Amino acid sequence: MQPLTNMQPLQHKVAVVLGASRGIGKGIALELGAAGAVVYVAGRTLDLGADRPGALLETVAAIEELGGRAVPVRCDATDDADLAALFGRVRDDHDALNVLVNSVFDAASFGPTIGKRFWELPASAWHDIVDVGTRSAYVACVEAAPLLLAAGAVGSALVVNVSALGARKYFYNVPYGVGKAALDKMTADMALDFRDRGVAVISLWPNVTRTEGIEAAIEAGDTARFDQFGGADSLETPRYNGRAVVALATDPEVMTRSGDYFWTAELGEHYGFTDENGRTHRYPKRR
């Protein structure tokens, strides 16, 4: 397929991105905003602090620099009341929701758990990985469903769950794999529930992505761990994932993909988009 030529193909559309303070969620929010959607950016960090990079107001500013419009909503995705309030606000402002992206992940608490066997982890690791990511995505979909159905009734709507290879093979640790596998199963089963209602549900698999945490490692000179991926400069960027979401959201045949998972680079190859600076990326072929 040829690359999209319409500079704002999502004009007059509404999107919600959970986990938009930083990382992949922020990259997706930026591309949705640049494509013309009104983007509700949700996360726990409203303004910049000294403890960690990234905040909703920073994401909003970046979207506005791209010519887009964004609405910051502070939301703890583990708090069901916060999620209900978020989608209540969207409902008060709009009749429908065209795109929902679930990209909540607590990278700060996850880092120390990498490579540890399950009995070496505190039981709270389950909450930090499975509840924070997978359960929050489920509750968000429940709250968003009426708005998504309204969009699907007059066209189509899209839910994107940011998942990963850990859904299919051992990666990092047990809770991580359980969370991603459950997320992909949720994608498949929700797609069946939505199949005749014009709402597509897709799992997006980024490869190793150059998030703020990785940028910090690079600045500290810790680049050897990226050699296996071809070096730090060969990593995907968060906005590459955003371009995948925009491509899906503007595909009139997106329902044919509903219920499945796709590597970001796989979608880049299919839809003809590239990463920043025109880069393309490899991805493992499906077995």
> In DSSP terms, counting alpha (H) and pi (I) runs of 4 or more, how many helices?
9
Major sheet: arrangement of strands: 3-2-1-4-5-6-7
CATH superfamily: NAD(P)-binding Rossmann-like Domain
SS-based class? alpha/beta
Could you give a quick summary of the protein structure above?
With 287 residues, this protein is an alpha/beta fold. The chain is built from nine helices and seven strands; from the N terminus they run βαβαβαβααβαβααβα.
Characterization of this structure:
- It is built from 9 helices and 7 strands.
- The radius of gyration is 18 Å and the shape is globular.
- It has 287 residues and is of the alpha/beta class.
- The protein has a 7-stranded parallel sheet with strand order 3-2-1-4-5-6-7, with helices on both faces.
- The chain has one domain: NAD(P)-binding Rossmann-like Domain (Rossmann fold).
- The N terminus is likely disordered.
- The chain starts with 13 loop residues before the first strand and ends in a 16-residue tail after the last helix.
Key descriptive features of the protein:
Rossmann fold, disordered N terminus, 42% helix, globular, 287 residues, alpha/beta, single chain
SSE blueprint and pairings:
Blueprint: E1 14-18, H1 23-34, E2 38-43, H2 56-65, E3 69-74, H3 80-93, E4 99-102, H4 107-110, H5 124-154, E5 157-162, H6 174-194, E6 199-205, H7 212-219, H8 238-249, E7 261-263, H9 264-271
Parallel strand pairs: 1-2, 1-4, 2-3, 4-5, 5-6, 6-7
